[in-house]
Please model this.
Amino acid sequence: MAPQKNHGPSIKNDERYEALRDEGYSKQKAARIANTKNPGEKGGKASTYEDRTKQELYDKAKEVGIDGRSKMNKNELINALRNN
Model:
């Protein structure tokens, strides 16, 4: 296995970032997931985005680093979370 790269302070989990990039994730999406403290797992019991409050969606968007979130309405936050 090749030595793990250091992607700088903007990437909090280099190993996870590299694994996601190897799976074909974009740099942006891999960075967001790698920087999330507790990414969800498939089959989890998380509520759907539609069932969450705008504040909960905003907090999640902030956690994953979505730009422009403060100007988004609930539907825009849902769309950004699903597509980034």
